[in-house]
Amino acid sequence: MPPAPTPERTARPSLESMPGAARPAKASQIAPIDARHALGVMAPEAATAEDVLAELSTTVAGLSATEAASRRMRYGRNLLPGGKRAAILTVLFHQFQSAVVYLLAAAAALAAYFGEIEEAGAIGIVLLINTTIGFATEIRAVRSIEALRKLEIHSARVRRDGFTQVVPAADLVPGDIVVLEAGDLVPADLRVIEAARLAVDESTLTGESVAVGKSPSAVKAGARLGDRTSIAFKGTAITGGNGTGVVIATGPLTELGRIAQLTAAAEPDPSPLERQLSRLSNQLLWATLALAVILIAIGLAAGKEPFLLVEAAIALAVAAVPEGLPIVATLALARGMWRMVRRNALVERLPAVETLGATTVILTDKTGTLTENRMTVRRLWLASGELDLSAAGSESDDPVLRRLFRTAVFCNTASLGAGSGADSGDAMELALLRAGRAILDPIDDLLAEHPRVYLHPFDVGTRMMATVHDRRDGGSFDYEIKGAPEAVISCACRIATNAGDLPLGEEARARWLWRADELGRRGLRVLACATKSSEVADAPPFNDLVLLGLVGLEDPARVDVPDAIRACQEAGIRVTMVTGDHAVTARSIAMAVGLGGSSPRIVEGAELEAIAARGDGALFTADIFARVNPAEKLELVRAYQANGEIVAMTGDGVNDAPALRQADIGVAMGLHGTDVARQAAAMVLLDDAFPTIVGAIREGRIIFGNIRRFVAYLLSCNLSEVLVVGAALLTTLPLPILPLQILFLNMLTDIFPAFALALGEGEDDVMRRPPRDPARPMLGRGDWARIALQAAIMAAATFCAMVVALTAGFDPQAVTTATFLTLAGAQLWHVFNMHGARSRLLVNPVTTNRWVWAALGLCVGLMAVASYWPPLTTVLGLRQPDLGTWAIVLPLSLAPTMLMQAVMVLKGWRKNATA
Question: What is the pTM of this model?
Fold first, then answer.
């Protein structure tokens, strides 16, 4: 009995038999490198192996060491672009590039110049806090290229000077001959020149989980990445067989290098929240400067003391800037991040928390996101008819069914993990083992009773594989075969039936080919199984076969995805599938999850450029983009963004990294995704489930609503301070509140009540509203009018307190204390005005928020410390309040809230009356 051959023992063609073996190497023939490879205009996938060897002036014996060194000087090292790490000082300096920071810094400098050291120091502390938060956030920036560089291979087997030797992979050059074995990573882009059952896992590049057979045979020029069976790409893994290839591209010119360059070039735009907060800050800056100039000019014209005017200008600057805004926004986003983690969504960049709420379109990957990322046997076709495996049951006694699964289990190189052990092997073969385990007796016993004695691995030429098993009956052997339906059917001469094995004529063979096509049209991957017996173990394996039937496998859709897609549609969010897989498979999954209805609109990657060029918007009505490559995914994201969409993009492979980085919110898979995808994304799904995205979008919408609410609160409080200072300058009254008091008040009321508002749970109908327009400002005209009214009422109450205190004969320090406490109280109670217009007066999202009550208790306590603790009272320029002071403060601080609540009640009655 001959020994069983393995891929490692398969004989390779001799050097002398290979094309180009006798060609001398001429350096002058090397074509200049272009944007793709070192072959000039030649498409290596379409050229013959001998033409590629000739173009590169090499032979199958390899380059000489001298020639390799010369080419390395010309082409550079075989390394991916590294990207430049931002210097820490650069990131730190970036934190000071803000108009608001400039304004506060100028106020601190003025205070220091006039000897107000306490005020200057306090403003400096505020700047330090904001800078620290910004620096800590930015220094955590994504470094996708570094993750890509982890895919670099450290060594490679090459032929040089006629001998096989191991060299650093970084030293490979175009023209090198690389030897490939199962288990290797491909060290550069190679044109395959020898292949013995060579199979490569290209899922990191194409997204397809099924290994691709490689062959020296040329393919069509410009074929899609997944169809270039004559090319082995850098960073992919050899899963079976062996072979050799000639290096056609190294480093940044490889497909992996191109992805690295696309990732480096892809820069997400600032999030909607970042843009709106930046716009708001600039508006505050210019409004403050304009107001300060006007009021100082009026003061000078009225003959007021310059020092008083400068102090008022400092007070205006401090009052106008909501110092707590960046702190509270960061804390609100951070809390949203932790809430999302509990929902299996890990947010890597804080602004992404809010960006989710603005999402208008989700470009979703198929495998692992909409599907289970687990191949499953779904349909069978036997001589007796088509069979749904789920209806067959594990107790099926159909003899042909059992023969088919016996072949599927025997003709298999995968293994199911025992206990906590991991499964290993090809995804389709694992699916066959799982199905076989449900139909047959314990498969381990079967394999032990019929040991394998010979293996014919899958060959890209025959498109079949076979195993030979000893019957242990004294000299006969079973041959179990599976492979592409057209290949197996063409080699079969009989068909297995319950009545015995019957002849398979041409008409019947055509019917079986039609059945295979029918399963394929449903989006299934189809295999044919066959068997035969022989007296010898080394007979030709692929002739005189008995066809057992067809097996249809699929990566099934997740059961929870249809409901999630319906939730997106109710929320006004469009969901579009973007996949590297075939259109038929993508269409099947789309229909299963309810994407695109009964007839989803499909656009293939090769059609994208022509459709985009038409400019008729057809690109944005597609339900599926199939067979797209990394560059096309990136351009799709950019096209949607140029169309005004806020794009969420999901992905898991290296090929998804550029698009994930470019998208407004890149979403990577945490269970089955690559490190490259996770590093490029803004959010990682810890469970790889599409519904998790929907939950994160809901959280993002709630967060934006809360941010909008506390921004309105902060601005109305700060505007009340501006009005108090401005009105004092326009009258003969003294300055009611000092800059340091304003700063203390802002750091108190701007943080705790505002943060409490940011912790709201949101409304129940938040996912039944359309996405907000990202171009729409955070606060509209109605919001600004309401803010101005609220600020004016609080400022009026403060002036009333000052007038009453002056009338009562209070000294200047006591007057300042009364106005300070009145304004502080008015701002604290003002938090109860932040409920929605349709909310009830006493029971609403604010009054039921326990954090609001906790914040008010803390602030009241801190105000008491400021009022009665001598060191802090002295620094703030206050006097310990007596009963007379509280008699002024309490009613006047409560009056603005009572008045505004009355206004809201009246507006509600009017609205109901006119409804």
Answer: 0.64
